[in-house]
Protein: Cytochrome bo(3) ubiquinol oxidase subunit 3
Organism: Candidatus Mycosynbacter amalyticus
Amino acid sequence: MTSHAAHLKEKAEKASLGFWLYLMTDIMVFASLFATYVILRHGTNGGPASQDIFNLEFVMVETFLLLISSFTCGLAYLAIKAGEKRNALILLGTTITLGIGFVTMELYEFGELIRAGHGPAHSAFLSAFFTLVGTHGLHILIGIIWAIALGDYISKRGVTPDAARKFGLFAVFWHFLDLVWIFIFTIVYLLGAIS
């Protein structure tokens, strides 16, 4: 192995290690936000409780968009591994579009709650809700930006082993956010609707 190739391999390994360290800190952040939400979910300050303000049908559509985006992300990764640049870009574009749809719906939900007088400053419950769900939405937005950058990288350089490695890290991040959303949907929305 040439010294240049060894340097590139070492650089890729460090980037991967950095990603996994980041992901572990993200797990701790979301665990803290979930714990905070669970503790504060009944702190309504005389205002509305979760069952009074959540629209489960709307949130199910959001969930569907994110689950399908996770599926298309996985298919895009398989297309990259198979050397299918065009299919990878189409599937990545679909993932991005679904992610944008998810964020748009989340912003709409936040806007409706705030217009109804149920903003984050109204109660501990709403503060914890907006913080948890908003942090997830911010991560989705970061994932969309990352996906756009990957699409640009792949369109210019092709489906190289480096592109597959980079996309693999992105896919782990995207699937992680999907998993976090399943917990949000279950703990915040479903349990909130029946409590």
